[in-house]
């Protein structure tokens, strides 16, 4: 049963998190459209472009459901939280929902190949009206960190990035993602894409990831990248999207 919070203005529901939501799902009568920028733009510029795209689709700005970011480097925890405040300010400056309990989901990573000079907007997902609908979802990026405990103690597996250590991290991450799917009322069989962010070999944990996220032979996209906070090594997001396109 879903325990998500409805966001009627946007046509979706969400799982409250910290400074962004843990997951979003389209309500009946709506589907998700994911637009990936062929050339990711600096955050403020990208959000302005997203506003134009959403408006041109005949949707209110509240329809923005999830942002995917690319960062130059992972940040220490305190600096990451400070960045999140700047991110929320950028959302507000462009007319998007950015008040508690923060409905918009997010994923964020620091690629090791051609990293951006500053935080960039890589893709956005928003709701569109459809006949039927109510099945699409996007689970925000989840790393191997537990909430509610001191930061260093909450990193599952600590700094062990051996094959055994990565397996412990992957098992935790995928269990958390499965829990989020259940909490938001999402059907795992509908997963259309998954992204794993790590600089470590994916092969040792691939069975764990695919076993927890059936992808209808589609596989998982490996992004050679750090999660956005220093000390983390493995992160995954999941999605079920009716329409994906480039801008």
Q: What would your notes on this structure say?
A:
There is one protein chain. By secondary structure, this protein is α+β, with helices and mostly antiparallel strands. The protein is 24% helix and 34% strand. A 12-stranded mixed beta sheet has the order 1-2-3-8-11-9-10-6-5-7-4-12, covered by helices on one side. It is globular.
Labels describing this entry:
247 residues, alpha+beta, 24% helix
Global Rg:
17 Å
Overall strand count = 12
Mean pLDDT: 93
Overall, the morphology is: globular
Structure annotation, total helices: 4
Instruction: Note the run of SSEs as H and E.
Output: EEEEHEHEEEHEHEEE
* Content-based structural category: alpha+beta
Taking the alpha carbons of the first and last residues, their distance comes to 36 Å
Unreliable parts: none
Most strands sheet: 12 strands, mixed
* Beta-strand content: 25-35%
Largest sheet: spatial strand order: 1-2-3-8-11-9-10-6-5-7-4-12
Helix content: 10-25%
